[in-house]
Every structure is written in C-alpha cells, then in structure tokens.
C-alpha cells in the first residue's frame, strides 16, 4: 500500500478531468481540503490534459490510468469517469494497493459492483470510499441521529418526491452517451437520483421489495427513464413511495418519514420539522376516551397536546459537502478517521435502481435480492436495441 507524504497531505490523483474532476481540483487548489493536494490528473483526452496543466501549473498529467497508478505521484485516486468505468477503475486501484474514492454511482449494474465489493473485501487494508456527499449534509446527519436514537420509533412509512432535476432536451443532446442504456446505464435513477436512493436506505433501511412504474422517454427524446414512481416494502407493514422525474420545471423536494412515535418532514433538503409524540401513537389511540373522540370530530381536540415539535436548519455553503467527503477521506488515510461513506455501501443504491428498472420492465414486484443475471440480460437487450455500445458481461470490463 502506498504511504502518505510526510507533510500530512494526501496527494490525490484525479481520474477524469471533466465537470466533476475540474470541480474537485478547484476545491483542492483553493485550499478547501486542508489535508489534500493535487498529485496528478489523468484523462484520455489531450485537450483536457492540456486544460489541467493550464489550470494547475506543475501538476503532472497522464493519458493512461495504469501509468498514473505506477507513477508514485499519488497516494490515492478519485474516479471522475463515466458510470460503467467506476468498478473497473476501483478494482484496479485496490489491487494496486492505492486507496480509492469512487464517484457515485458505484456502477451501473449489481454484478459489477458486487465484484468491486468482493475485491475490496479481499484487500481490507486498502481504503475504499464513495462520494456520497449528502451523507455529509449536516441536516441529514442530524436526521439520522434522531432516527437511530429511536425518537420517532419504528418505521411506518416514507414518502420522497424529488423532482428538482429539470433537464431540457438540449442537456441530453450535448453528449451522445448521455441518457442511453449503453453509455450511461439509465436515466434519472443513475444520473440525478443516486444520492436520494442512498439516503433513503441510509436513514430508513434497505427495502425488501419494490414495485415500480417508470416511463422511458416520457417527455424527453431519450430511451431511458425520465419519470419514476416506486412503491417500497420495508417489511413489518412499513412502506414507502419514491417519485422522481426530469421534466418538472417547478420541482419538489419533500421527504416525510413517519414512525410510530413521531414524524420528520424535510423540505428542499435544507430544513426539517420534527414531531415527537409523547406516547406511542397506538397508546394515544387506545387511551383516547369518547369525550376525546367527540372533541376530535367537533374540532375541539388540540393535537398539539400529544407531541412536541422541533425545527432544524443549517446554512449550506456550495461545495462544502463534497470538500467534507474529500477531507474525511484524507483524514481516514492519515489517522484512521472513520469514513463518512464506506465504498461497500455503494451497492445499495445501485441495487435499488436496478430493482426499480427490473420491476418496471417486468411490470411486477421484485425483491431486492433479485436475479442479477436476469437484470443484466434485460439491460443488454436495451443496449442491443440502441446499437451503439457493446453489451455488458457479468464481470467488470
């Protein structure tokens, strides 16, 4: 395994100098990640390498990823490349002994991400993280603390409408690979919503089954999904609804988590209102006498007497969540600080997205431990129909 530099700064290799790679490089150059420096940049496009050299004079650039790993110029890498390449590059870094921060999503289909996790398990001494920056959102971190502390009791229902992804047709037309099965692996579920697919499971647990209705090319000229409604079954009677789309110009971001002892309502991923019941809801129901029932129907019963309320809101500085994950990754390498988002967690969101696709394709409820080979076969049918990209195999390419 590579050793860190003596000045307590991790030299990060940025693989892919596109939108995300340039953003991370800018954060580091601005000093927003105290324990990290730009070690090198890798990109197959000579124009992007030239841009990196212009943006960050003195930084070494590489065309070949293997050359970067062998160069000795980096202590760790971040993979800012197309989704299908994340598992392959993650595996190569792990096998080389180089710590790796994989950009979201961890991959496109469950089989390739499972292989990435398998290699990670075989190389436990090589740090492996994923860029789930929303886990560094202080609002969601506080919400998780509330749920884990049992403040709202056992889960009953979740509802998340997240349609703040409006994308005009020109967004899709700018790149031939975007919003294709073969180039990107899907639509809103793999591009815009992976953070929410991760968060809902991080906060509330992994669903047992999913039944989904998805529209493919519904309001945009694309072959992949731009509208999704999914019903989640967590077991023990708890259910959830997840709605997302890229054609809602106004957009809504509202999450509700209902437990048997309270409720959390999140608006815009910026503020939350927490209701804590003074008793379990069923106990309140059982103890309410006929006078209370009459008062309820006559509008004389004040429900506020049964719960306490709390407002939660944090200031949000652009880029702070991403820089926090980068800094956490650096500190993990330097002193063992626990990771905000272990890389092995990345499979959860990919698996849920795959389950939603599979359910919509088959028009039936599917378990989260679905047949991954069946999903890949149906994905390949759609890649073949596009006729532009190679079909995928059950192993990382």
From TrEMBL:
Keywords, alphabetical: NAD
UniProt keyword tRNA processing, yes or no: no
Domain GFO/IDH/MocA-like oxidoreductase: 140-264
Keyword NAD assigned: yes
Transmembrane segments: none
An annotated Gene Ontology molecular function: nucleotide binding
A UniProt-annotated Pfam family: GFO_IDH_MocA
Gene3D superfamilies membership: Dihydrodipicolinate Reductase, domain 2, NAD(P)-binding Rossmann-like Domain
Domain Gfo/Idh/MocA-like oxidoreductase N-terminal per the UniProt entry, residue ranges: 10-123
Identification of the protein by name: Gfo/Idh/MocA family oxidoreductase
Organism: Rothia koreensis
Lineage: Bacteria, Bacillati, Actinomycetota, Actinomycetes, Micrococcales
